[in-house]
Design goal:
17 strands; about 10% strand; alpha+beta; three-stranded mixed beta sheet
Protein backbone atom coordinates (compact mmCIF):
# COMPACT_ATOMS: atom_id res chain seq x y z
CA UNK A 1 0.00 0.00 0.00
CA UNK A 2 1.32 3.45 -0.91
CA UNK A 3 2.23 5.74 2.02
CA UNK A 4 -0.52 8.23 1.32
CA UNK A 5 -3.10 5.44 1.22
CA UNK A 6 -2.01 4.37 4.70
CA UNK A 7 -2.34 7.99 5.78
CA UNK A 8 -5.84 8.12 4.32
CA UNK A 9 -6.94 5.18 6.46
CA UNK A 10 -5.54 6.79 9.59
CA UNK A 11 -7.06 10.16 8.73
CA UNK A 12 -10.49 8.75 8.05
CA UNK A 13 -10.51 7.30 11.56
CA UNK A 14 -9.05 10.32 13.31
CA UNK A 15 -11.27 12.83 11.56
CA UNK A 16 -14.32 11.11 13.01
CA UNK A 17 -12.85 11.83 16.43
CA UNK A 18 -11.96 15.41 15.54
CA UNK A 19 -15.25 16.19 13.88
CA UNK A 20 -17.17 15.08 16.97
CA UNK A 21 -15.41 17.30 19.45
CA UNK A 22 -12.67 14.77 20.29
CA UNK A 23 -14.95 11.93 21.19
CA UNK A 24 -15.54 8.76 19.18
CA UNK A 25 -19.00 8.44 17.68
CA UNK A 26 -20.12 4.83 18.03
CA UNK A 27 -23.72 5.59 17.17
CA UNK A 28 -25.16 8.55 15.34
CA UNK A 29 -26.24 11.27 17.74
CA UNK A 30 -29.70 12.36 16.55
CA UNK A 31 -29.05 15.86 17.91
CA UNK A 32 -26.12 16.34 15.55
CA UNK A 33 -27.26 17.67 12.18
CA UNK A 34 -25.62 19.17 9.14
CA UNK A 35 -25.50 22.95 9.27
CA UNK A 36 -27.75 24.63 6.69
CA UNK A 37 -25.78 25.70 3.62
CA UNK A 38 -26.51 28.32 0.99
CA UNK A 39 -25.63 31.68 -0.45
CA UNK A 40 -28.85 33.14 0.94
CA UNK A 41 -27.98 36.78 1.70
CA UNK A 42 -28.21 38.56 -1.70
CA UNK A 43 -27.07 42.17 -1.83
CA UNK A 44 -29.95 44.44 -2.85
CA UNK A 45 -30.05 48.12 -3.71
CA UNK A 46 -33.53 48.55 -2.27
CA UNK A 47 -34.96 46.99 0.88
CA UNK A 48 -31.68 45.27 1.89
CA UNK A 49 -32.01 41.86 3.44
CA UNK A 50 -35.62 41.41 2.39
CA UNK A 51 -34.84 38.35 0.27
CA UNK A 52 -32.37 36.79 2.69
CA UNK A 53 -32.81 33.56 4.61
CA UNK A 54 -31.01 32.91 7.90
CA UNK A 55 -29.91 29.64 9.42
CA UNK A 56 -32.94 29.74 11.73
CA UNK A 57 -31.33 31.64 14.59
CA UNK A 58 -33.79 33.31 16.97
CA UNK A 59 -33.48 37.08 16.76
CA UNK A 60 -33.29 39.46 19.73
CA UNK A 61 -36.56 41.25 20.62
CA UNK A 62 -37.80 43.56 17.84
CA UNK A 63 -34.79 42.68 15.66
CA UNK A 64 -34.90 40.88 12.31
CA UNK A 65 -32.27 39.20 10.16
CA UNK A 66 -33.02 41.77 7.44
CA UNK A 67 -32.26 44.60 9.89
CA UNK A 68 -28.97 42.95 10.78
CA UNK A 69 -28.00 42.63 7.13
CA UNK A 70 -29.03 46.23 6.42
CA UNK A 71 -26.69 47.40 9.20
CA UNK A 72 -23.90 45.23 7.77
CA UNK A 73 -24.39 46.86 4.36
CA UNK A 74 -24.95 50.46 5.49
CA UNK A 75 -22.32 52.88 4.20
CA UNK A 76 -21.06 55.36 6.77
CA UNK A 77 -19.97 58.93 6.05
CA UNK A 78 -18.15 61.67 7.92
CA UNK A 79 -21.50 62.74 9.39
CA UNK A 80 -21.88 59.33 11.06
CA UNK A 81 -18.32 59.02 12.35
CA UNK A 82 -16.39 57.58 9.41
CA UNK A 83 -12.60 57.80 9.86
CA UNK A 84 -10.53 59.88 10.32
CA UNK A 85 -8.57 56.96 8.80
CA UNK A 86 -10.35 53.97 7.30
CA UNK A 87 -10.34 51.29 4.62
CA UNK A 88 -14.02 50.93 3.75
CA UNK A 89 -17.38 52.59 4.34
CA UNK A 90 -19.33 49.44 5.18
CA UNK A 91 -18.77 45.85 6.26
CA UNK A 92 -20.12 44.68 2.89
CA UNK A 93 -17.42 46.63 1.07
CA UNK A 94 -14.97 43.94 2.20
CA UNK A 95 -17.32 40.98 2.66
CA UNK A 96 -19.65 40.64 -0.29
CA UNK A 97 -18.85 37.97 -2.91
CA UNK A 98 -21.11 36.40 -4.12
CA UNK A 99 -23.53 37.65 -1.46
CA UNK A 100 -23.29 39.86 1.60
CA UNK A 101 -20.93 38.28 4.12
CA UNK A 102 -18.70 36.53 1.59
CA UNK A 103 -15.13 37.30 0.59
CA UNK A 104 -13.97 40.18 -1.59
CA UNK A 105 -10.95 41.32 -3.57
CA UNK A 106 -10.15 43.95 -0.93
CA UNK A 107 -6.79 43.70 0.83
CA UNK A 108 -5.60 45.63 3.88
CA UNK A 109 -2.01 46.79 4.36
CA UNK A 110 0.05 46.06 7.46
CA UNK A 111 3.57 47.06 8.40
CA UNK A 112 6.12 47.00 11.21
CA UNK A 113 9.72 46.07 11.99
CA UNK A 114 11.86 43.80 14.14
CA UNK A 115 14.06 45.10 16.94
CA UNK A 116 17.59 43.93 17.67
CA UNK A 117 16.28 41.08 19.80
CA UNK A 118 14.12 39.79 16.98
CA UNK A 119 10.81 40.98 18.43
CA UNK A 120 8.13 42.37 16.15
CA UNK A 121 7.37 46.03 16.83
CA UNK A 122 4.24 47.86 15.75
CA UNK A 123 5.05 51.09 13.92
CA UNK A 124 4.34 54.66 14.92
CA UNK A 125 2.90 56.25 11.77
CA UNK A 126 3.53 60.01 11.38
CA UNK A 127 0.73 62.00 9.73
CA UNK A 128 -0.09 65.66 9.15
CA UNK A 129 3.46 66.58 8.02
CA UNK A 130 4.90 64.80 11.07
CA UNK A 131 2.90 66.93 13.48
CA UNK A 132 0.87 63.95 14.72
CA UNK A 133 1.48 60.22 15.17
CA UNK A 134 -0.75 57.16 15.05
CA UNK A 135 1.05 54.95 17.59
CA UNK A 136 1.58 51.23 18.04
CA UNK A 137 -0.55 49.94 15.17
CA UNK A 138 0.44 47.54 12.39
CA UNK A 139 -2.59 48.39 10.24
CA UNK A 140 -1.92 51.20 7.77
CA UNK A 141 -5.24 52.54 6.51
CA UNK A 142 -5.53 53.26 2.79
CA UNK A 143 -8.06 56.06 3.12
CA UNK A 144 -8.67 59.17 5.20
CA UNK A 145 -11.33 61.87 5.45
CA UNK A 146 -8.71 64.58 4.86
CA UNK A 147 -5.19 64.66 3.39
CA UNK A 148 -3.68 65.61 6.76
CA UNK A 149 -4.74 62.27 8.25
CA UNK A 150 -3.54 60.06 5.40
CA UNK A 151 -1.20 57.31 6.57
CA UNK A 152 1.94 56.16 4.75
CA UNK A 153 4.27 53.48 6.03
CA UNK A 154 7.65 54.97 7.00
CA UNK A 155 10.78 53.66 5.34
CA UNK A 156 11.87 52.20 8.67
CA UNK A 157 9.05 49.64 8.61
CA UNK A 158 10.67 46.84 6.63
CA UNK A 159 7.92 44.30 7.38
CA UNK A 160 5.11 44.94 4.91
CA UNK A 161 2.21 42.66 4.09
CA UNK A 162 -1.18 42.43 2.43
CA UNK A 163 -4.13 40.68 4.05
CA UNK A 164 -7.10 39.61 1.99
CA UNK A 165 -10.60 40.15 3.33
CA UNK A 166 -12.21 37.11 4.89
CA UNK A 167 -15.40 35.19 4.34
CA UNK A 168 -17.77 35.59 7.28
CA UNK A 169 -20.58 33.31 6.06
CA UNK A 170 -21.07 30.47 8.52
CA UNK A 171 -18.82 32.04 11.14
CA UNK A 172 -21.56 31.74 13.75
CA UNK A 173 -20.91 28.01 13.65
CA UNK A 174 -17.17 28.62 13.94
CA UNK A 175 -17.76 30.74 17.03
CA UNK A 176 -19.77 27.83 18.46
CA UNK A 177 -16.88 25.34 18.21
CA UNK A 178 -15.79 24.32 21.68
CA UNK A 179 -12.22 25.19 22.67
CA UNK A 180 -11.63 21.53 23.51
CA UNK A 181 -12.38 20.54 19.92
CA UNK A 182 -9.70 22.85 18.56
CA UNK A 183 -7.24 21.63 21.20
CA UNK A 184 -7.95 18.02 20.23
CA UNK A 185 -7.26 18.75 16.57
CA UNK A 186 -3.94 20.38 17.45
CA UNK A 187 -2.94 17.46 19.68
CA UNK A 188 -3.61 14.89 16.95
CA UNK A 189 -1.70 16.61 14.15
CA UNK A 190 1.89 15.63 15.16
CA UNK A 191 0.95 11.94 15.18
CA UNK A 192 -0.68 12.26 11.76
CA UNK A 193 2.33 13.95 10.20
CA UNK A 194 5.36 12.31 11.75
CA UNK A 195 5.79 15.31 14.01
CA UNK A 196 5.98 17.80 11.15
CA UNK A 197 2.61 19.49 11.65
CA UNK A 198 1.36 20.98 14.88
CA UNK A 199 -1.22 23.73 14.85
CA UNK A 200 -0.95 26.41 17.50
CA UNK A 201 -3.95 27.76 19.38
CA UNK A 202 -3.71 31.00 21.31
CA UNK A 203 -5.83 32.41 24.10
CA UNK A 204 -7.04 35.90 23.22
CA UNK A 205 -9.10 38.48 25.12
CA UNK A 206 -12.87 38.48 24.77
CA UNK A 207 -13.54 42.20 24.57
CA UNK A 208 -17.11 41.97 25.85
CA UNK A 209 -15.95 39.97 28.90
CA UNK A 210 -13.07 41.92 30.47
CA UNK A 211 -10.43 39.64 31.95
CA UNK A 212 -11.72 36.58 30.08
CA UNK A 213 -9.95 34.75 27.25
CA UNK A 214 -10.86 32.10 24.71
CA UNK A 215 -9.09 30.30 21.88
CA UNK A 216 -8.86 32.65 18.91
CA UNK A 217 -10.39 31.62 15.58
CA UNK A 218 -11.17 34.80 13.62
CA UNK A 219 -8.73 36.86 11.59
CA UNK A 220 -5.56 35.75 9.80
CA UNK A 221 -3.72 35.62 13.13
CA UNK A 222 -6.60 34.15 15.19
CA UNK A 223 -6.63 37.48 16.98
CA UNK A 224 -10.29 37.25 17.98
CA UNK A 225 -12.42 34.57 19.61
CA UNK A 226 -15.90 36.10 19.47
CA UNK A 227 -17.88 37.68 16.68
CA UNK A 228 -18.74 40.71 18.80
CA UNK A 229 -15.02 41.30 19.45
CA UNK A 230 -14.31 40.81 15.74
CA UNK A 231 -17.07 43.24 14.76
CA UNK A 232 -15.97 45.88 17.24
CA UNK A 233 -12.34 45.69 16.13
CA UNK A 234 -13.26 45.89 12.45
CA UNK A 235 -15.63 48.80 12.99
CA UNK A 236 -12.85 50.82 14.59
CA UNK A 237 -9.89 49.77 12.48
CA UNK A 238 -11.51 49.31 9.06
CA UNK A 239 -14.11 52.09 9.22
CA UNK A 240 -12.90 54.32 12.03
CA UNK A 241 -16.14 54.00 13.98
CA UNK A 242 -15.68 53.94 17.73
CA UNK A 243 -17.97 51.75 19.83
CA UNK A 244 -18.45 50.57 23.39
CA UNK A 245 -15.68 47.96 23.12
CA UNK A 246 -13.22 50.26 21.31
CA UNK A 247 -13.92 53.73 22.62
CA UNK A 248 -11.17 55.85 21.09
CA UNK A 249 -10.22 56.70 17.51
CA UNK A 250 -6.66 56.12 16.38
CA UNK A 251 -6.24 59.87 15.69
CA UNK A 252 -8.13 63.10 16.27
CA UNK A 253 -6.79 64.79 13.12
CA UNK A 254 -9.86 65.95 11.13
CA UNK A 255 -12.17 64.27 13.62
CA UNK A 256 -15.54 66.02 14.01
CA UNK A 257 -17.67 63.50 15.94
CA UNK A 258 -17.60 62.50 19.61
CA UNK A 259 -16.81 59.02 20.92
CA UNK A 260 -18.26 56.46 20.97
CA UNK A 261 -19.90 56.94 17.60
CA UNK A 262 -21.83 53.65 17.59
CA UNK A 263 -24.75 53.70 19.98
CA UNK A 264 -28.02 51.82 20.53
CA UNK A 265 -30.76 52.13 17.93
CA UNK A 266 -34.53 51.97 18.30
CA UNK A 267 -34.41 48.27 19.24
CA UNK A 268 -31.61 48.80 21.75
CA UNK A 269 -28.84 47.31 19.60
CA UNK A 270 -25.66 49.03 18.45
CA UNK A 271 -24.29 48.41 14.98
CA UNK A 272 -21.68 45.98 16.32
CA UNK A 273 -24.53 43.92 17.83
CA UNK A 274 -26.29 43.82 14.47
CA UNK A 275 -23.03 42.85 12.71
CA UNK A 276 -22.42 39.95 15.09
CA UNK A 277 -26.04 38.84 14.92
CA UNK A 278 -26.00 38.93 11.12
CA UNK A 279 -22.87 36.79 10.90
CA UNK A 280 -24.26 34.36 13.47
CA UNK A 281 -27.40 34.03 11.36
CA UNK A 282 -25.71 33.23 8.05
CA UNK A 283 -25.67 29.78 6.52
CA UNK A 284 -22.39 28.07 5.70
CA UNK A 285 -21.01 28.34 2.15
CA UNK A 286 -22.47 25.53 0.02
CA UNK A 287 -20.59 23.28 -2.35
CA UNK A 288 -21.35 23.11 -6.06
CA UNK A 289 -23.52 20.01 -5.70
CA UNK A 290 -23.45 19.07 -9.38
CA UNK A 291 -19.68 19.29 -9.69
CA UNK A 292 -19.11 17.65 -6.31
CA UNK A 293 -21.17 14.65 -7.43
CA UNK A 294 -18.93 14.07 -10.44
CA UNK A 295 -16.56 11.13 -10.46
CA UNK A 296 -13.55 13.45 -10.82
CA UNK A 297 -14.50 15.52 -7.76
CA UNK A 298 -15.16 12.38 -5.73
CA UNK A 299 -11.75 11.01 -6.68
CA UNK A 300 -10.20 14.41 -5.95
CA UNK A 301 -11.72 14.43 -2.48
CA UNK A 302 -9.96 11.16 -1.69
CA UNK A 303 -6.68 12.50 -3.07
CA UNK A 304 -7.10 15.61 -0.90
CA UNK A 305 -6.93 13.36 2.16
CA UNK A 306 -4.28 11.06 0.75
CA UNK A 307 -1.71 13.79 0.14
CA UNK A 308 -2.19 15.15 3.66
CA UNK A 309 -4.20 18.32 3.01
CA UNK A 310 -6.93 17.26 5.44
CA UNK A 311 -4.55 17.25 8.40
CA UNK A 312 -4.90 21.05 8.54
CA UNK A 313 -7.89 21.58 6.24
CA UNK A 314 -10.09 19.44 8.50
CA UNK A 315 -13.11 18.25 6.59
CA UNK A 316 -15.71 18.09 9.36
CA UNK A 317 -16.15 19.63 12.81
CA UNK A 318 -19.14 19.51 15.15
CA UNK A 319 -20.13 22.59 17.14
CA UNK A 320 -20.80 22.62 20.87
CA UNK A 321 -24.29 21.61 22.02
CA UNK A 322 -27.00 24.22 22.32
CA UNK A 323 -26.94 25.78 25.77
CA UNK A 324 -23.15 25.84 26.01
CA UNK A 325 -21.98 29.14 27.52
CA UNK A 326 -19.03 30.69 25.67
CA UNK A 327 -17.22 34.00 25.20
CA UNK A 328 -16.48 34.49 28.88
CA UNK A 329 -20.10 33.90 29.86
CA UNK A 330 -21.56 36.50 27.50
CA UNK A 331 -23.09 34.21 24.85
CA UNK A 332 -25.02 30.94 24.95
CA UNK A 333 -24.93 28.70 21.89
CA UNK A 334 -28.49 28.74 20.47
CA UNK A 335 -30.35 25.80 18.98
CA UNK A 336 -29.61 27.00 15.44
CA UNK A 337 -25.86 26.75 16.00
CA UNK A 338 -25.57 23.89 18.48
CA UNK A 339 -24.50 20.33 17.60
CA UNK A 340 -24.16 21.21 13.93
CA UNK A 341 -21.73 19.44 11.62
CA UNK A 342 -19.82 21.88 9.44
CA UNK A 343 -17.30 21.32 6.66
CA UNK A 344 -14.98 24.33 6.81
CA UNK A 345 -11.84 22.55 5.54
CA UNK A 346 -9.86 24.32 8.25
CA UNK A 347 -8.59 23.62 11.74
CA UNK A 348 -8.69 27.34 12.63
CA UNK A 349 -5.18 26.96 14.05
CA UNK A 350 -1.96 28.85 13.32
CA UNK A 351 0.71 27.17 11.20
CA UNK A 352 4.04 28.13 9.66
CA UNK A 353 3.72 27.19 5.99
CA UNK A 354 6.45 29.49 4.75
CA UNK A 355 4.19 32.38 3.71
CA UNK A 356 3.86 34.21 7.03
CA UNK A 357 4.30 37.97 7.04
CA UNK A 358 6.21 38.37 10.32
CA UNK A 359 3.46 40.35 12.04
CA UNK A 360 2.36 39.48 15.57
CA UNK A 361 -1.23 40.11 16.75
CA UNK A 362 -2.57 38.93 20.12
CA UNK A 363 -0.14 35.99 20.11
CA UNK A 364 3.36 35.14 21.32
CA UNK A 365 6.43 36.02 19.20
CA UNK A 366 6.49 32.64 17.46
CA UNK A 367 3.19 33.45 15.72
CA UNK A 368 4.82 36.14 13.57
CA UNK A 369 5.40 33.78 10.68
CA UNK A 370 2.26 31.74 11.23
CA UNK A 371 -1.18 32.23 9.69
CA UNK A 372 -4.57 30.67 10.31
CA UNK A 373 -5.42 27.75 8.05
CA UNK A 374 -7.57 29.18 5.30
CA UNK A 375 -11.11 27.72 5.44
CA UNK A 376 -11.73 26.30 1.98
CA UNK A 377 -15.51 26.38 2.08
CA UNK A 378 -16.65 28.75 -0.66
CA UNK A 379 -13.24 28.44 -2.35
CA UNK A 380 -14.75 28.60 -5.84
CA UNK A 381 -15.74 32.22 -5.14
CA UNK A 382 -12.10 33.29 -4.50
CA UNK A 383 -10.00 34.69 -7.35
CA UNK A 384 -6.98 35.72 -5.24
CA UNK A 385 -5.65 33.01 -2.99
CA UNK A 386 -3.63 32.67 0.23
CA UNK A 387 -3.63 35.24 3.03
CA UNK A 388 -1.88 37.82 0.86
CA UNK A 389 -3.86 37.22 -2.34
CA UNK A 390 -0.65 36.70 -4.31
CA UNK A 391 -1.57 33.28 -5.74
CA UNK A 392 -3.72 33.46 -8.85
CA UNK A 393 -4.34 29.72 -9.34
CA UNK A 394 -5.02 26.71 -7.15
CA UNK A 395 -1.78 25.12 -8.34
CA UNK A 396 0.25 28.18 -7.34
CA UNK A 397 -1.36 28.26 -3.92
CA UNK A 398 -0.60 24.59 -3.28
CA UNK A 399 2.99 24.92 -4.47
CA UNK A 400 3.60 27.88 -2.15
CA UNK A 401 3.01 25.64 0.86
CA UNK A 402 6.31 25.05 2.63
CA UNK A 403 7.30 24.58 6.26
CA UNK A 404 4.74 22.40 8.01
CA UNK A 405 2.94 21.78 4.72
CA UNK A 406 6.00 20.87 2.65
CA UNK A 407 5.22 17.14 2.53
CA UNK A 408 1.70 17.80 1.24
CA UNK A 409 3.05 20.14 -1.45
CA UNK A 410 5.60 17.51 -2.46
CA UNK A 411 2.89 14.84 -2.55
CA UNK A 412 0.93 17.09 -4.91
CA UNK A 413 3.96 17.34 -7.18
CA UNK A 414 4.12 13.54 -7.26
CA UNK A 415 0.56 13.14 -8.52
CA UNK A 416 -0.13 12.14 -12.08
CA UNK A 417 -1.72 14.75 -14.39
CA UNK A 418 -5.04 12.95 -14.03
CA UNK A 419 -4.84 12.96 -10.23
CA UNK A 420 -3.93 16.63 -10.19
CA UNK A 421 -6.90 17.43 -12.38
CA UNK A 422 -9.20 15.43 -10.11
CA UNK A 423 -7.91 17.22 -7.01
CA UNK A 424 -8.45 20.60 -8.63
CA UNK A 425 -11.94 19.60 -9.68
CA UNK A 426 -12.72 18.83 -6.05
CA UNK A 427 -11.34 22.19 -4.93
CA UNK A 428 -13.36 23.96 -7.61
CA UNK A 429 -16.49 22.32 -6.20
CA UNK A 430 -15.97 23.85 -2.76
Amino acid sequence: MKPWNVLAVVLSTVLVVLASGARVIRHHDPQEQEAPAGFTTPTLSEDPGSQSVSNGIVQPPDDTFAMDQAAFEEADGVDTGLGPVFNARSCADCHQNPVTGGVSQVAEFRAGHYDRRGNFVNPNIPINDNQNVIPNRSLVNDRAVCPEAQERAPKSEAVRALRMSLNTLGDGFVEAIDDGTLQAIAQQQPALSGGKIGGEFIQVPVLEAPGQTRIGRFGWKDQHASLLSFSSDAYLNEQGITNRLNMTDTTTVCKTSSDPEDGPDEVGMADIDHFAQFIRGTQVPPVDATLMASSDAQAGQQIFTQVGCAICHVTAITTAPAGTVINGGTFTVPDALGSRIIHPYSDFLLHNIGTGDGIVQNGPPDTGYKVRTTPLWGLRTHDRLMHDGLSATREQAIQRHKGEALDSANNFKGLSPTQRSQLLTFLNAL
